[in-house]
Amino acid sequence: MADITAQMVKELRDMTGLGMMECKKALTETSGDMKAAEDLLRIKSGAKASKAATRLAAEGMIGAYVAPDGKSGALVEVNCETDFVARNEDFINFTRDLAKLVAMKSPTDTEGLGVATLPNGKNVDELRKALVMKLGENISIRRFARHAAQGRLASYLHGAKIGVMVDYTGGDETLGKDLAMHVAASKPICVSREQVSSDLLARERLIYTAQAAESGKPADIVAKMVDGRIAKYLAEVTLLGQPFVKDPDQTVEKLLAAKSAKVNGFTLFVVGEGIEKKSGDFAAEVMAQVSQIKEDKASQSN
After folding, report:
1. What are the domain boundaries of the chain?
2. Which superfamily does CATH assign the domain made up of 1-55 to?
3. pLDDT by residue (tens digit) across 207-229?
């Protein structure tokens, strides 16, 4: 059986928002399998999907750029080690310049962006290394997304930690900005239910089925309960199904219909999303080492 560490328990607790003892028990029952433990907790507690996607696990900022004609644009995430550096003017300008460069040059990946040349004639990676030397922290270009709009683009930055770019047709600039703000606030995973991956939907259905089965109701009632939960889930995670943040009495789908508009696609970046930030507690580490030494001595004497 795998050793269940305090870090594993903390990570699962951060992902689910449940108690430490519940998390430790789930990890024990699943032999330390984090994903299986999360699913088990969701089945037993009725908890919603993982909180991990909304957790800011690294520092940095999102840069955004939309061309004057609204037809091309880009989002870029650049990471650093502390929020202090993320608020540095040179770091901010570097990130914004990268967003514009991506929109103009359309590199294929971060390596291609690294060897690109900025309008001032400087190489991107050389400038990044110069910032590392000047600011004293590791700085990395994590990801970017370039849009060539079917309609036109709207962008929104929330404190530079959340960045959104929306490609929409119809409506006006106010609608575009409202849609981008909605995505930042409600964090849909895709535009419509047809775009939800079959694997993700299958996982949710398994969890809801296990939850409903514990009610002891007949199979046909359980099936209806699961279908209802799936319908609710699809409304929660798709842009069209969500209540519009500025008017919760109507869905985004109804808003778009009223404006004779549609959303062709969007990109949502959250700084540090999916990155595990390393945190250390020196006193705890020392005590853990002392405990291990005592255990080793005890086992040797037996």
Report:
1. 1-55, 56-191+260-270
2. Ubiquitin-associated (UBA) domain (1.10.8.10)
3. 888 888 888 888 888 889 999 99
